[in-house]
Amino acid sequence: MLTLRERGQAAVGLDIKPSPHTNFVGSMTDRAMLRRAFAGASTVFHTATLHKPHVLTHTHDEFVQTNVAGTLALLEEAIAAGVSRFAFVSTTSALGSALTPPPGEPAAWVTEDVTPIPKNIYGVTKSAAEDICELIARRRNLPVIVLRTSRFFAQADDDRTLRGAYSVDNLQANELLYRRVDLADVVEACFAAASKAPEIGFGRYIISASAPFSQSDLPELRVDAPGVVRRYFPEYDALYQAAGWRMMPSIDRVYVNHRAVRDLNWSPQYGFRRVLDALASHSSFRSRLAVAVGEKGYHDREFEDGPYPVG
User: Whole-model pTM above 0.90?
Assistant: First the structure.
């Protein structure tokens, strides 16, 4: 909404909480509200979700109602309103256990062809929502693009060990090598998806910062990630040392965005090269949009050990 309005494009915001960018406050399962909101709309960007931070604070039924029934309501009301394109922001977490190879195995090369193995209600319902998107796209001729986004939250990691070993900036900069994307690049991916949806019809795409690695790097990434990074970015050691940062010893997966770059004509701008340039110039590696949005949190209350409870 910030970007659309900044660019002078007419847009209507829906959310369960009021904000300066929210025109309709309520649940996306409220079909009467959706009908009012969708009047005259050409494009729907579906970003609402219950996700991993809510797994221990919300019931399975709440996940189903929001992520599955809510997605179906949006799709059906979009069709009724004559919407011509639909972009659904999903998650790489839908792939679940398929993302973590067994000990001793090479890092996983994660493309759209990986078969999901959901490991919690979040993954199950996001995977189901993707399938509903595909069903509606093919049966009702609504162009739908599913964007499986990697991490783009600004909050500290939920893993206590990682929080103790790395600063937030250090860890998130490292993740831009293989499992993170900047918020501004996600927004641009949404716009690219909307533009290409009528041509594509239906598609699933991984949206993550461009990884520098190749498949031949996967065995070594699992045992000596700093050595692999050093080959691609010889200057990274000195810049990291000056910042008091360090690379993690092992990388277990690499998200591959090649198909999204090719099919959607999407060009992510915020990757590890930008991190190193920012360190050299003592500036932020995050986009202006990511800095402006900042940390929004996931709940109305705080938790003692981490940004949200983890089971």
Answer: yes
